[in-house]
Structures are given as C-alpha cells and as structure tokens.
C-alpha cells in the first residue's frame, strides 16, 4: 500500500466526515433554539468550509487554496465578532425580551463638582 493510496483514503474519509459535520451544523443553524446558538453554528460552518478547502488543496496539490482558506478564516472571525456585538447591543430577541437599554447616564452640568470653586 503506497502513500498515494493512504492519502486518497484519508482525504475521502475526511471529506465524508466533514459532510456529516456540515449537515449537522446546518441543522443547528436552522433549528436554533437561540440566536447565540445560530451564531456559533455559523462560525462552525466557516470552520468546516476551511476544512473542505484544506482537504481539496491536499488532494489537488494546488497551494493557492490554502491562501483562500486563510482569507475565509479572517472573514469568518470578523463576521462572528460583528454578530456578537449585535447580540450584545440588541439583546436576545428570541427569548421574548425587550432589547437591552443602554445604562442610564448621569445628567451633565447639574450639581457642583468637587475641587472647583466658583
């Protein structure tokens, strides 16, 4: 059994396992139950897509795919951070809660400041 046979079998097994992971993660995106669960599942879909690209790069020997996978990882990270900031600023709408209000700020210009003499 040569190296080509082992590499072919391993890449086929990896692609099959990633297909199963992709469908399970897509089910989690659709099913939910909460918005953070969907965000984590979307981040996982990006990671699975990076895995697909890496396996295809190994199978074909075309190294440009690795650069594409790195770019996809950066974009996926930025999207996850943006979704997380959205959830923090707007609250969890899936739970029936009102969006989180910003904390009350003290009124400016009222009262006397310490250390100042008028």
UniProtKB/TrEMBL annotation:
Region (Disordered): 94-118
GO molecular function, one term: sodium:proton antiporter activity
Annotated compartments: Cell membrane
UniProt similarity note: Belongs to the CPA3 antiporters (TC 2.A.63) subunit F family.
Main location: membrane
GO cellular component: plasma membrane
Biased composition (Basic residues): 107-118
TM region(s), chain numbering: 6-27, 39-58, 64-88
Annotated membrane topology: Multi-pass membrane protein
Keywords: Cell membrane, Membrane, Transmembrane, Transmembrane helix, Transport
Protein name from the UniProt record: Cation:proton antiporter
């Amino acid at each position: 059994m040569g190296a080509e046979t082992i590499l072919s079998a391993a890449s086929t097994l990896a692609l099959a396992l990633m297909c199963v992971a992709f469908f399970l993660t897509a089910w989690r995106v659709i099913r939910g139950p909460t918005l953070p669960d969907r965000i984590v599942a979307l981040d996982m879909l990006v990671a699975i897509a990076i895995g697909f690209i890496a396996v295809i790069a190994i199978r074909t020997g075309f190294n440009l795919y690795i650069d594409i996978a790195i770019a996809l990882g950066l974009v996926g990270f930025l999207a996850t951070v943006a979704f997380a900031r959205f959830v923090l600023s707007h609250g969890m709408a899936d739970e029936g809660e009102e969006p989180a209000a910003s904390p009350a700020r003290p009124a400016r210009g009222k009262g006397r400041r310490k250390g100042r003499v008028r």
